[in-house]
């Protein structure tokens, strides 16, 4: 058993991101969204995003609160539907979701739970 533990410890590395930086990934997501708006614009009101936020409200309100925390939108507006936010607030929500997408993509895959 000790030999197995020693072999596993040798394989463990500290975290490294050898691909694009966090900011480069974020900027790429923003640019892709801008291009989709200009060239495709198949969901101009972001109904899919509105539905996603409502889904989160029903199933895990903490995630919605996380998104709104990242946007710095006043707590009094957290109950609003996506369509009820102004343009700047909608953009802030989209940017916050893109930040989370970048973060999730970089989370290490082989995390274990210590006992």
Written account of the structure:
The protein has helices at 2-11, 22-39, 47-59, 61-71, 87-106. The chain is globular and about 45 Å long. It is mainly α and 115 residues long. It contains 5 helices and no strands. The two termini are 17 Å apart. The mean pLDDT is 87.
Blueprint (SSEs and pairs):
Elements: H1 2-11, H2 22-39, H3 47-59, H4 61-71, H5 87-106
Helix pairs in contact: 2-5, 3-4, 4-5
User: Main beta sheet: strand number and arrangement?
Assistant: none
Total strand segments: 0
Distance between the termini: 17 Å
Round the Cα radius of gyration to an integer and report it. 19 Å
* Coarse morphology: globular
Strand content: under 5%
List keywords for this structure.
mainly alpha; 115 residues; single chain; 5 helices
Brief digest:
The protein is mainly alpha-helical and 115 residues long. Helices cover 63% and strands 0% of the residues. It has 5 helices and no strands.
């Amino acid at each position: 058993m000790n030999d197995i533990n020693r072999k596993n410890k040798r394989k463990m590395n500290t975290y490294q991101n050898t691909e694009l930086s966090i900011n480069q990934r974020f900027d790429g997501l923003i640019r892709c969204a801008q291009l989709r708006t200009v060239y495709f614009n198949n969901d101009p009101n972001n109904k899919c995003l509105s539905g996603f936020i409502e889904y989160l409200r029903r199933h895990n309100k903490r995630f919605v609160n996380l998104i709104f925390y990242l946007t710095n939108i006043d707590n009094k507006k957290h109950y609003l539907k996506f369509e009820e936010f102004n343009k700047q607030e909608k953009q802030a929500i989209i940017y916050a979701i893109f930040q989370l997408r970048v973060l999730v993509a970089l989370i290490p895959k082989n995390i274990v739970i210590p006992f």
